[in-house]
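thoughts on my protein:
***
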Amino acid sequence: MSHRTLESPVATKPASPPPRRPARARKPSRRREGPQFRGLVSPHTLTTPHGKVIYWVVLTLVLVTFTAAFVFPLYWMFTGAMKSPEELAQIPPTFFPETVNWGVWAEAWDLLDLGLFLKNTLLYAAGAWLFTLALDVSAAYALSKLRPVLGKAVLGMMLSTLMIPPTVILLPAYLTVKDLPILGWNLINTPWAIWLPAVANGFFIFLLKRFFDSIPRELLEAAQIDGASPLRILWSVVLPVSRPIIGVVSILAVVNVWKDFVWPLLVLPDSEKMSISVGISSLSAQMPQNVLIAALFIASVPAIVVFLIFQRSIMAGLTAGSLKG
């Protein structure tokens, strides 16, 4: 009888775990440091008493120097107008007038007929402002939101005009105003000779378009869903949120017309229709020096007042690039 050999089951050993890799040495964690200041003077130095003194001394000197550089010409005109012609010709010049003549202001107003010239200039500036807002805002809105065919090419050609010196286009512009194409009108000695060239400003269109690009399209799409037309969207949605940049363009348009000299000299030869700058220049040879300086100061006062009142609007409009809230 054959005996079967009983084989004992082989005990299965558990699989040995894979060898562990040696742990890498952890890099020491870097603590987040505060903002690093780079400059000539560290913030710690400014907190010391010695650093504070140096900071305020330098800041005061810089502000006084730049303020004097801009204010001194106005002071020199104001005091020079109240000096006598002999004192104006004195060398070295006097810093303060020896005898103050307050009547020179009324004399300049009457002799140079500044009332007429100021009225003419105000008419030219107001018309240029209205036409600039009407046409430049519409053009910028069309290029920014309506996206016409070849809109980028049109904008590029507008911006290319900024690279052309104004004196280069004086003759073509004068010939255009003298004989208006297609219509054949002669606009010399008319306000249109000032208004139409003032509107053709690629810089204003670029500023307006840049601001309109920052307006979210959701606002316009919501108005479109409500059934608003493109003109209604411009009037009720775009213009109310674009007051800063419109204020900037308005101020620049008025100041450009107010200070312009060469173009009004060419297109407004009639003495009854001259602007303030051309009128003073045409009568300068017949007037005493102090009266002429007084007239120049009076002519510069409106532009200075406008700038001082709206300087915050100018900076806010030039730096505005997005909407908040």
In short: Residues 1-12 have pLDDT under 50 and may be disordered.
